[in-house]
Amino acid sequence: MRAVVVEQYGVLPVVQEVPRPEPADGSVVLKVEATGLCRSDWHGWMGHDSDIVLPHVPGHELAGTIAAVGSGVHGWQVGERVTTPFICACGACEQCREGNQQVCPNQLQPGFNYWGSFAEYVAVPYAEVNLVRLPDDLDFATAAGLGCRFATSFRAIHQVGKVVAGENVVVFGCGGVGLSAVMIAAALGARVIAVDTNPDALKLAREYGASDTLQASSTTVQEIRDLGGAHVTMDALGSNDIVQQALLSLRPRGRHLQVGLLPSGVQLDVGRLIGQELQWLGSHGMPAHAYPEMLTLVATGNLKPADLITRTITLEQTPAALAALTNGTPAGVTVIKP
């Protein structure tokens, strides 16, 4: 099969012919119909993830058709249209038994723990726990984005942050995760304030439901305070500077959602967290069993993840697009069709 192969961190990968994966016990192999290009893939390419072993194939947001079914997998057939969370949980540990597959200690992530979906085929371990059937009218490109950015934002905003109508929600960073969060928070009735350095991203944020947009600057915190302050803030990019601005923007007893990765760490004013009774909430993906609520809202038109897709590229165009993330995250979502 053809796949994008990383042979050295930070060095432009190339498309190569590599062996197609075989289905292990409990797993399936998917023909990749669409896969998203995410900033997490860039972090992996840069060497920020210790689980990656070179040579490596990135890619963790995916949708496709089942091409082969391993032994011990029941209820799934070749040809079915599916997606999967980027966190493939074991289904047997304490966290999984409690329904918290997104923090499974035995989890495997395509594109990180093993070869991912920047390829024509990809394996999905623990298939019975992690596969999600797709509605017939949901296209593969839209479904691919659900596995990481959209589902991550849905759980962060709705299930972890518990955003309700009338709250001020400030989203820092309007890439795929941030724009998804804007759309979801607006659909819940929140007043959304979007912050980014990219005017094109802010334009999209307004289209997806932001009431206010702010060009990131040294006055961002004061501008947010002038708008009433934030009940909820979300760092959708991953930056120590953003974290500081987010925490300073919160009203007393506000909630901060950390979704963006922080490979260089972060400094926290614990005194402010205590004195203002602020909450720091981490959110990491969403388990397969939680997808039905999100898919229902997509089916009814309350959420429109298809609108987030701004670019579709080929496998051959992927290495350059991955490298371009070094200069910043483009507006909207980029989908790869192998």
Automatic annotation (TrEMBL):
Keywords: Metal-binding, Oxidoreductase, Zinc. Gene3D superfamilies: Medium-chain alcohol dehydrogenases, catalytic domain. It holds the Pfam family ADH_zinc_N. Its cofactor is Zn(2+). Residues 10-336 form the Enoyl reductase (ER) domain. Coiled coil: none annotated. GO terms for molecular function: oxidoreductase activity; zinc ion binding. PANTHER family: ALCOHOL DEHYDROGENASE-RELATED (PTHR43401:SF5), L-THREONINE 3-DEHYDROGENASE (PTHR43401). Belongs to the zinc-containing alcohol dehydrogenase family. This is Alcohol dehydrogenase. It comes from Kribbella pittospori.
